[in-house]
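User: For my dataset I need records formatted as: sequence, then structure tokens, nothing else. Please produce one.
Assistant:
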Amino acid sequence: MSRNRRLILSSPSEVWDLLSDGRRYGEWVTGTQEVLAVDPDWPNVGARLRVRVGMGRLTLDDTVVVRISEPRRRLELEARAEPFGAARIAMQLIPWGEHTLFVIDWHPLRGPGTRMHGLPVDYVVAIRNGMMLTKLARIAVREHDASLGGPRVGRWASAGRRGWSRPRGGAAQ
């Protein structure tokens, strides 16, 4: 299993708005080349996305099914990429003040991924999921800023872009 966490400088409602728009899945899910079809009731339980994933000419069509949906709190998906099997992707949106602590867990369910499960695969998945959370955070912050009429100001303004970290030049005050 691979687990990543990221503080996103947007509210859980704003982050959920991105997750609940299946047409935008390819904007933030690393490796998605194209969203082929979206069930109109996405992200309700049982709803599906059909996506094309891969790198360069190496692509395959994947089906993503919603298994658990708790608006603004939790979304669990099953991604099926035959012949490689399926994986569980569990996302939690935890309110953190006015922001969102986003937690994603990835775990293989079926297929060869279950046999290759372990440190090397989890490491690659953690890198991929970290990239994905960076994209999601950038989109959420950009759209939040646009709804406020411009870019954020303040010492933590870039946290949504680079991750949650101390300002350069010393310890947090």
